[in-house]
Write a structure and sequence with these properties.
about 0% strand, single chain, 11 helices
C-alpha cells in the first residue's frame, strides 16, 4: 500500500509539474503573439477604447434628450462628430505649438549658453568642460528623427483605427443577437451578458474618473505655468492631461518638460522653482490623495498590480501598452473572477481581495 501511495503522490507531482509547464508555455506563447501582432492589435485595442468612449458619450447624450434606453443612431452620430472635432482640435493645437517652439528655439539655445556660462563659475572649468562635451555629444538629430518616426507611425495607424471603429459601430447592433445565438442556454447567455456589462461599466467609470482627475491636475499645472510666465502653458497642461493616463510615470514625465523649459527660458531660477512647486503640489493633491480615492475605487486594482501591468504592457506594446494597461488589467480581472480555476488570480489582482 505504501508503494501505491507513493505512486499516487508521484503522479500528482507529475501532473502539477505538467500543468505548470503548460501554463508557462501558454503565457510565453501569448506574449510572443501579442508582440508579433503589435501592428494589428494595438490599433484594434485603441479602436475598442475609442468605441467605449463614443458609446458612453452617446448614452449621455441620449439621457440628456430624455431617452433612458439604448442610444439611437442620432446620439451615436453626434458622439462620433464630437470625438472627430476633439481629435481635429487636438491635432491643430499640437501642430501650432510645435511650430511656435521651433521658431523660439534659437532664444532658448542662447539662454542655455548663458546658463552653462554661469555653471562654469560654480562647478569649475574641468567639470564644465565635461558638461559641455556631454551636451555636444547629445544626439539632438537622433531624438528629432525618433520623434518624427513616432509621429509618422501614429499618423499611419489613424486610418486603421478609424476603420476598426466604423466596423465596431456597424456591428454593435447585432452583437447581442450573435451572443444569444452562440450561448448554449439562457442561463449561459445571461452570465456572459452580465460579464460584458460589468466590463463596459468598469471601463467607462475608469475613463470618466481618470479624465476628471487628469483635468484637475492639468488645471493646477496650468495655473503654476501662467504664474511663472512659461511659454505654451496651455500646451503643457494638455500634455499633463494626456500623459496622466499612463499610471505612475506619466504625470512625472509630463512635469519634466515645462520645468526644463522654465529653466532655459528665463535667466533666473525663480520661474523654475515656481513650476516645480506647482507640479509637485498637483501631484501631491491629485496624484496621492484624490486619484487613489476615486480612480482606485473604480478599478479595484492593487497599486503593485498597476505598476507590474505598466511594466509588462509597456514591454509588450510600448507607449500604447502603457496607456491601455489599466483597462486591459481590469477586463482580465473581471473575466478571471467568473471561473473557479482563475478566481484566485482575480483576488490577487484586486486591491482588497473583494471582487464580488
Amino acid at each position: 500500500m505504501n508503494t501505491l501511495a507513493l505512486s499516487g503522490a508521484d503522479r500528482t507531482q507529475i501532473n502539477t509539474l505538467l500543468t505548470a509547464t503548460l501554463t508557462m508555455g501558454l503565457v510565453l506563447m501569448t506574449v510572443f503573439a501579442l508582440m508579433a501582432g503589435k501592428s494589428v492589435l494595438v490599433p484594434f485595442a485603441m479602436a475598442i477604447l475609442l468605441w467605449f468612449i463614443i458609446n458612453a458619450l452617446a448614452r449621455r447624450l441620449a439621457k440628456l434628450a430624455g431617452n433612458t434606453g439604448a442610444p439611437g443612431l442620432g446620439a451615436i452620430a453626434a458622439s462620433v462628430l464630437i470625438v472627430i472635432a476633439v481629435c481635429i482640435g487636438v491635432a491643430e493645437v499640437v501642430a501650432t505649438n510645435v511650430a511656435a517652439m521651433v521658431e523660439r528655439a534659437p532664444s532658448y539655445l542662447a539662454n542655455i549658453d548663458v546658463l552653462t556660462g554661469k555653471l562654469s563659475g560654480l562647478i569649475g572649468l574641468k567639470a564644465f568642460g565635461e558638461l559641455t562635451a556631454a551636451i555636444d555629444a547629445f544626439d539632438f538629430d537622433g531624438i528629432l528623427l525618433a520623434l518624427a518616426n513616432g509621429a509618422a507611425g501614429v499618423a499611419g495607424s489613424i486610418g486603421t483605427v478609424v476603420l476598426y471603429i466604423a466596423f465596431l459601430l456597424a456591428e454593435q447592433h447585432f452583437m447581442g443577437k450573435k451572443l444569444k445565438a452562440m450561448a448554449a442556454d439562457d442561463a449561459r447567455h445571461a452570465k456572459i451578458s452580465a460579464v460584458l456589462a460589468e466590463v463596459g461599466q468598469r471601463v467607462r467609470t475608469y475613463l470618466f474618473t481618470k479624465s476628471l482627475t487628469s483635468a484637475a491636475m492639468a488645471a493646477m499645472v496650468w495655473v503654476a505655468l501662467e504664474i511663472a510666465g512659461v511659454d505654451f502653458a496651455g500646451f503643457w497642461a494638455f500634455l499633463v492631461f494626456v500623459l496622466n493616463f499612463i499610471p505612475v510615470v506619466g504625470g512625472i514625465i509630463s512635469g519634466v518638460f515645462p520645468a526644463a523649459l522654465a529653466l532655459v527660458q528665463f535667466p533666473t531660477l525663480t520661474p523654475f522653482i515656481i513650476v516645480v512647486a506647482g507640479v509637485g503640489l498637483a501631484h501631491l493633491i491629485i496624484g496621492n490623495i484624490v486619484e487613489p480615492r476615486f480612480v482606485g475605487s473604480s478599478v479595484n486594482l492593487s497599486p503593485l498590480v498597476v505598476i507590474l501591468a505598466l511594466s509588462i504592457w509597456g514591454f509588450i506594446w510600448g507607449v500604447a501598452g502603457m496607456f491601455l494597461c489599466v483597462p486591459i488589467t481590469v477586463i482580465g480581472m473581471i473575466i478571471f473572477s467568473e471561473f473557479r480555476s482563475t478566481r484566485p488570480i482575480a483576488i490577487a489582482l484586486s486591491e482588497n481581495g473583494e471582487i464580488d
